[in-house]
């Protein structure tokens, strides 16, 4: 019994105690600042509302057309109107598809038939990235994924677009 | 594990003597509250430093959200107070710590004064301490403006008018602080922010270093 007692020296005991108390104080001090710093990571997105893009569903044809609209964006303490755009068309199954114009290579903006050399394709001027009409990237061009699509809804004959989500592989 | 890492480093760059210099020193009996309870008065200097550390940490984290601009300053403070988890606590730490640091500093000064610890050979350290006191007041004054609410604005207005009372250079001093001869506004806020987070803390670190090196060199003053 008394042998075991001597295994912790006075110096060791003080070291452990001081480290423990010091660690406790440091943790108590840092917990709030750290929680505050990581808050953006833990905040979950409430999911954007659908916005009226000002296009009647009946006007959507099999030819992709560009629509521009703006949404209210709340960025911390700063609220602003930001512009959005999409390429909308009706596909072979008579479904409405709205593509995000952001190139999946490095984020430039693509346009339908943006180059005279490639009719019937989306074209990105930055690095000659191309996509077919169904949004799938042309093999051998820089982009490695198809164009993202907007969630969409029809209300009173008007097209409403929501969040952007990855293209379900064609 | 920790011991192994320590040994690995120590083996290469021999840090033990440095560590010894910093941490290993005798605490005389007359400053040890375990021997004489009244020795707790010796804690105030260390407590001041401890609160300063809290101020530095909480301040660093607050600048993640704060914007020193008249359009956004109040909005950003309101946002962190209401929308960011634990930010209210962090700003609370900074807000109350600012007062506590002055209280601790005064108690420390009173102890040194009434024990006569400032006498030869420690006059220089007293002077450095007085400079630290002024830097702290400066930090309090400049920090008060940053939330950019009514209280902050008018307190600064008054503070600047006090600065203007200085003979001969008063007006120039006010303009230098406010960034404009008449307006307390956009330029004042950025100036105060720069002074609060860069210039004064820089001065504070230098002065604290001198303060601590002098204590270590001269040792703590003897018993009464």
TrEMBL record, chain A:
Q: Which Pfam families does the record match to this protein?
A: Rieske (PF00355)
Q: State the UniProt keywords alphabetically.
A: 2Fe-2S, Disulfide bond, Electron transport, Iron, Iron-sulfur, Membrane, Metal-binding, Oxidoreductase, Transmembrane, Transmembrane helix, Transport
Give the PROSITE patterns listed for this entry: RIESKE (PS51296), TAT (PS51318)
Q: How does it assemble?
A: The main subunits of the menaquinol:cytochrome c complex are a Rieske-type iron-sulfur protein (QcrA), a cytochrome b (QcrB) and a cytochrome c (QcrC).
Say which domain of life the source belongs to: Bacteria
GO MF entry, a single one: metal ion binding
Which family is this protein grouped under?
Belongs to the Rieske iron-sulfur protein family.
Functional description taken from the UniProt entry? Component of the menaquinol:cytochrome c reductase complex. The Rieske protein is a high potential 2Fe-2S protein.
Q: Which residues form the Rieske domain?
A: 88-161
> From which organism does this entry originate?
Oceanobacillus sojae
> Membrane-spanning regions, if any?
12-31
- What protein name is recorded for this chain? Menaquinol:cytochrome c reductase iron-sulfur subunit
What the entry lists under InterPro entries is as follows: Rieske_2Fe-2S (IPR017941), Rieske_2Fe-2S_sf (IPR036922), Rieske_Fe-S_prot (IPR014349), TAT_signal (IPR006311)
Automatic annotation (TrEMBL), chain B:
TM regions (residue ranges): 39-67, 96-114, 126-146, 193-215
Q: What is its main location?
A: membrane
Question: Do the record's keywords include Magnesium?
Answer: no
Q: Where is the Cytochrome b/b6 N-terminal region profile domain?
A: 5-224
Q: Which InterPro entries match?
A: Cyt_b/b6_N, Cytb/b6-like_sf, Di-haem_cyt_TM
GO cellular component assignments: plasma membrane
- Where in the cell does this protein reside? Cell membrane
The membrane topology term of the UniProt record is:
Multi-pass membrane protein
Q: Which GO terms describe its molecular function?
A: electron transfer activity; metal ion binding; oxidoreductase activity
Alphabetic keyword roster: Cell membrane, Electron transport, Heme, Iron, Membrane, Metal-binding, Transmembrane, Transmembrane helix, Transport
Name the cofactor(s): heme b; heme c
What Gene Ontology biological process does one annotation of this record name? respiratory electron transport chain
Note the subunit structure. The main subunits of the menaquinol:cytochrome c complex are a Rieske-type iron-sulfur protein (QcrA), a cytochrome b (QcrB) and a cytochrome c (QcrC).
Biological role:
Component of the menaquinol:cytochrome c reductase complex.
Q: Which NCBIfam families match?
A: cytb_ExtP (NF040969), PRK03735.1 (NF002990)
According to UniProt, the name of this protein is: Menaquinol:cytochrome c reductase cytochrome b subunit
Question: What is the organism field in this record?
Answer: Oceanobacillus sojae
């Amino acid at each position: 019994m008394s042998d075991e007692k001597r295994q912790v020296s006075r110096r060791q005991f003080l070291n452990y105690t001081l480290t423990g108390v010091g660690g406790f104080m440091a943790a108590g001090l840092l917990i709030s600042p750290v929680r505050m710093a990581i808050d953006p990571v833990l905040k979950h997105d409430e999911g954007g509302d659908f916005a009226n893009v000002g296009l009647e569903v009946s006007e959507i044809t099999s030819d992709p057309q560009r629509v521009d609209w703006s949404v209210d964006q709340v960025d911390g303490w700063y609220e602003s109107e930001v512009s959005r755009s999409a390429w909308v068309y009706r596909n072979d199954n008579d479904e409405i598809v709205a593509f995000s114009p952001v190139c999946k290579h490095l984020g430039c903006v693509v346009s339908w038939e943006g180059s005279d050399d490639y009719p019937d394709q989306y074209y990105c001027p930055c690095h000659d990235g191309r996509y077919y009409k169904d949004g799938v990237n042309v093999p051998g061009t820089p982009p490695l994924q198809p164009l993202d699509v907007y969630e969409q809804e029809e209300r009173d004959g008007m097209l409403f677009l929501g969040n952007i989500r990855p293209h379900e592989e064609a | 594990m920790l011991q192994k890492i320590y040994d690995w480093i120590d083996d290469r760059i021999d840090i033990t003597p440095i560590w010894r210099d910093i941490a290993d020193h005798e605490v005389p009996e007359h400053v040890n509250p375990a021997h004489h309870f009244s020795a707790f008065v010796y804690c105030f200097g260390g407590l001041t430093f401890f609160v300063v550390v809290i101020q530095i940490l909480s301040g660093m984290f607050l600048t993640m959200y704060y914007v020193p601009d008249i359009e956004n300053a109040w909005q950003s403070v309101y946002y962190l107070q209401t929308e960011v988890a634990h930010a209210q606590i962090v700003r609370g730490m900074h807000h109350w710590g600012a007062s506590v640091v002055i209280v601790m500093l005064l108690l420390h000064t009173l102890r040194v004064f009434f024990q006569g610890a400032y006498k030869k050979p420690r006059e220089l350290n007293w002077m450095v301490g007085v400079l630290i006191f002024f830097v702290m007041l400066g930090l309090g004054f400049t920090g008060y403006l940053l939330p950019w609410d009514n209280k902050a604005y008018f307190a600064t207005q008054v503070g600047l008018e006090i600065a203007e009372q200085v003979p001969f250079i008063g007006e120039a001093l006010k303009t230098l602080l406010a960034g404009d001869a008449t307006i307390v506004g956009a330029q004042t806020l950025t100036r105060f922010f720069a002074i609060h987070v860069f210039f004064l803390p820089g001065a504070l670190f230098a002065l604290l270093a001198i303060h601590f090196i002098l204590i270590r060199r001269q040792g703590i003053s003897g018993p009464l």
